[in-house]
Each structure stands twice: as C-alpha cells, then as structure tokens.
Amino acid sequence: MLDPVSWKSSDGGTYRRYVPELAVSGGKLRLIEQTLLPEKLEYIELDDTESIFDAIKRLAVRGAPAIGCAAALGLAAVVRKTEFNSSGELPAFAQKTAARLAESRPTAVNLFWALNRCMAELKASNAASTGELKNTLLKSALDILEEDIQMCRSIGMYGKSLLHDGMGLLTHCNAGALATGDYGTALSPMYVAHEAGMKIKVYADETRPLLQGSRLTAWELHQAGIDVTAICDNMAAQVMKEGRIDLVIVGADRIAANGDAANKIGTYGVAVLAKYHNIPFYVAAPYSTFDLSLDCGAKIPIEQRQPAEIANGFGRRTAPENINFYNPAFDVTPNELITGIITEKGIITPPFEPGIRELQNR
Ligand code: MRU
Fold this sequence. Notes:
The structure is a single chain. The chain is built from 11 helices and 16 strands. It has a 7-stranded mixed beta sheet with strand order 8-7-6-9-12-15-16. It is globular and about 65 Å long. Helices cover 38% and strands 18% of the residues. The protein starts with a strand and ends with a helix. By secondary structure, it is an alpha/beta fold. Helix 1 packs antiparallel against helix 2 (64-81). It has 2 domains: 2-152, Four Helix Bundle (Hemerythrin (Met), subunit A); 154-361, Rossmann fold, CATH 3.40.50.10470. The mean pLDDT is 96. It has helices spanning 49-57, 64-81, 89-102, 109-124, 130-160, 188-195, 212-223, 236-241, 267-276, 308-311, 352-359; strands at residues 5-8, 14-17, 23-25, 28-32, 43-46, 167-171, 200-205, 227-231, 247-250, 254-256, 261-264, 281-284, 290-291, 330-333, 340-343, 346-348. Bound molecules: 5-S-methyl-1-O-phosphono-5-thio-D-ribulose. The site of 5-S-methyl-1-O-phosphono-5-thio-D-ribulose (MRU) has 19 residues, from helix 2 and strand 11. 5-S-methyl-1-O-phosphono-5-thio-D-ribulose (MRU) is lined by residues 59, 62-65, 108, 173, 175, 179-180, 184-185, 212, 251-253, 263-264, 329.
C-alpha cells in the first residue's frame, strides 16, 4: 500500500495525494513502473533519453497528462546530467532530446504541449550559464507537474457537482492519479466526492488489450477506499441495462475544436451504449488536452500498437499464429455522444465549439 502523502498547493490548501508517481529524485525522473501493477509497486529512475522514450512507449508511464509531465521532467533530467562546453550548445541539445521524446506516442497532445512549453520557456529565458539554463528547464517541468495536479483537483471539484450519494459510475481505461500528476481527470470527481463522504459505486471497464481499467483504475480506487467493481469490456451493456450505471466519466487524450474526443479504444462503444440507455456521458480533461488546431476528431492521429498485445498479452498465446491483428490504441467519440466536458475551468455543454473557444479566455 502507498503511504498517504499530503500536498500543499499554491492555492494555500493542503490536500491528500493519491498516487504521487511522478517526481524528480537526485536529478532523475522517478516514476512507477505501471506495467507491474497491481502485483508490484516499483519505482524506476531514469535520466537518459532512450530509457525515457522507452518508458513512455511501453506504457511504464501512461495517460495523457502523465506522459506530458514525464516527458518534461525527463527532458530536464537528461539535460541536467549532460556536460556542455558552452551554454550555447544546451538549447540545441535540449531541442533534439525533446524531438526524440515527442516521437514516443502520437495521440495524446499533452506530450507535445508539455515539451513545446519547456522549449519555449528555455528559449525565452535570460539565463546565461548552463547551470541556470538547466534550472530553467527543471522549473518549467516542475511547474507543469504542479499545475497538472491543481487542474485535476479543480476538475474534481466541478465534476463532483454531477454526483450524488448512492450513484453508480462507469469509467473506461485509467484516467486517474496514475494517468496525471495526481487525482486524475475522470477519477478526480470520484476522489473529491469520496473525500466529502459521498457513497459511490464505480464500475471499471477492464480495458482490453492492456487492462488499464482492471490493473490500474481498480487498484488506485481500491487504495483510496472507493467501492470499485471490475467488469470485462463486453459486460458494459448488460451492467447499464441492469440500471447499475447513472453516469459515465472518461478521460481524453486529445479533444478537437468541435469537442470530438479521442480516448482509449472502446470509449466510443461505451458512449454509444450510454446514449442507447439514456445515461449521461462526460469527458473530463484539462486545457492541455485540447488541440484547437484540429477542427474535428477525424484529424487526430491514432496510435497503432503491436499485434502481440492482442495475441500474447500477458504471457500466454490467446489467438492462433499467422492471422491478422488490428490494434488501434484509441478511438474518437463524436461530440454528439458527449453530454459535457469537465475541465478545470468549468463544465462545457453543447454546442461545444464556442464553449471550447471561450475556455481559452477564462
Ligand atoms: O494508452 P494509455 O494507457 O496511455 O491511454 C490512456 C487513456 O486513454 C486515458 O483515458 C487518457 O490518457 C486520459 S488520462 C487522464
């Protein structure tokens, strides 16, 4: 079990942290090796570009905001341990490192958002020495992490207004503390409601092929003392029909300007089921997940992953050799299936386009 950690936010509040998995330790990026959960809780420490790239690619760290934070902290760690002959060499090296980390996964926009922000702040800095430049990068990364925790907590406060005692909730994949700086996006309203003494019952879709729902969501909610039930993905329709679900909340990896939202494969199916059963379907995400350069979800790049994840996922062959596999990691839920988007600045309801545009000025 994790020891409860409290966190003093810059808004002056002290809050419980749920899974503080991302940090800088001795100059290295420290993170939970999520592929081992729920059996083992182990941390790894990294400070070279290829192992950070690899940790993101193989989902040792995953979830849109978390990979943005990890890439930013990782960039700072790699640059910190590198020796430069002159401060002029540092920005080009940082740019090359950022470009490599950005190749790790294509769908979650938070990765590019975080790396671009770190590089922009580095370029804009007046720092003269390599030491100061290294500190500038580290500060940017730590700011991103701190802001992410605050944004997630705010999402939780707004999202809690949708919940009431005795409610049944369904979520897909893991959009919790493990997927963010802490609190999560989709899970944050559940944490905040639980802190306020509300009794909720959460159903976690298992989330084939990599089981983020049963391995990670069920693990972190159980750690927090929230009533959680894991179901296989193909049970969601039946669970809804039985009247067990009052509300669905999922996260997002990228939201286009019209509100179409990419999230873990299977989310679109859950949204269709929710519509059929008249169950409100909410997406929860911070502003770093919006990509206003894309007018609709069809333009969101969808990561394709290895067949082995389907054929041989957890050490046992579950499909014949020599057949075809198709393994898109994400799908896009069209805006008309979304009841509302819970952000750190409030809940946006349809029509989404003006609401999303206006969000930038709030
Ligand atoms: O492939 P993953 O595990 O990185 O996919 C994660 C998701 O789809 C999450 O729901 C999304 O990133 C939101 S995390 C707050």
